[in-house]
Amino acid sequence: MSSITNLLADLAAGKIKVVDLTQPLGPATPVIDLPPIFAPSPGLTISEISRYDDKGPAWYWNTLTLGEHTGTHFDAPVHWVTGKDLPNNTTDTLDPASFIGPACVIDVRAEVAQDPDFLLSIEGVKAWEAQHGQIPAGAWVLLFTGWASRGNDKAAFLNADAEGPHTPGFHQTTSEFLVKERDVLGVGVETIGTDAGQAGKFNPPFPNHGIMHGAGKYGLASLRNLDQLPPTGALLIAAPLKIVDGSGSPVRVLALAPA
Ligand code: 23J
Ligand code: MN
Question: Tell me: the pLDDT tens digits for 55-113?
Fold first, then answer.
């Protein structure tokens, strides 16, 4: 039997589970709150085209208006100025083979419970690797912060005060390590963006975006259900919409994991 035949048999037998890592996408879905000097990204608005009525007697459909980076979404390399001149850096030109890859899930819930501004260090990655093995090239590194448990409370999810948002992320040296030493596919987070909440004040600002996308790596934001994944051994499917010249897109992120 081919591995695909085996996979399908295991799925049918319930030996492999499909985990949905996606937030519901609706008008209440939180979007990033950038400083007011920058243009805001709109959340989602839905307007009805027809619903079995005069406008369409047998059909229901809607018009969506939304930013590319709304809800559970994919960041393509062109999203950041550091990645703007890379080949095949837009949602319509990315290699589709890269939409499927292994996931390494780094549990930092305890650290984040102590400090919402927690930044994962290289030492933190190496401590995880000592337990679970080295992060393979082409892997998604998922930062399991527990932040998704705040998902139904917008204020708690954004966690902003006068200093701006307080949400966890990666130390700049860690983003560099993951790119240069581990050649990851990208990083995924439960928070609103792949940079920490305070990262707009870092030098350079938003270093994870700059480093990842400058190296052709991807981002996933606003993930859920990471508690249902093993630290290693899950396969992630994250295929952005094929938006022409798109910088990213809402995405349905699925993981296959041993049941
Ligand atoms: C633009 C500027 C800063 C950030 C972001 C976008 C995102 O998080 C995003 O959705 O890519 S931090
Ligand atoms: Mn984004």
Answer: 999 999 999 999 999 999 999 999 999 999 999 999 999 999 999 999 999 999 999 99
In angstroms, the CA 84 to CA 13 distance is: 45
pLDDT tens-digit series, residues 239-253: 999 999 999 999 999
Of 78, 166, 195, 211, which is best to mutate to test ligand 1, by the most ligand atoms within 8 angstroms of its C-beta?
195
Q: Return the closest-CA partner of residue 90 out of 246, 200, 228.
A: 246
The CA R_g of the chain, rounded to the nearest whole Å, is: 19
Name residues with Cβ closer than 5 Å to ligand 2, which is an ion: 69, 75
Sequence length of the chain is 259
Whether 79 is catalytic: yes
pTM above 0.90, yes or no: yes
Q: Roughly how many angstroms between the first and final C-alpha of the chain, as a whole number?
A: 21
Question: Which residue in the list 69, 73, 79, 171 is annotated as catalytic?
Answer: 79
The distance from CA 237 to its chain's CA centroid, rounded to whole angstroms, is: 11
- Residue 238 Cα to ligand 2 midpoint, Å, equals 14
Ligand 1 lined by 182 (C-beta under 6 Å): no
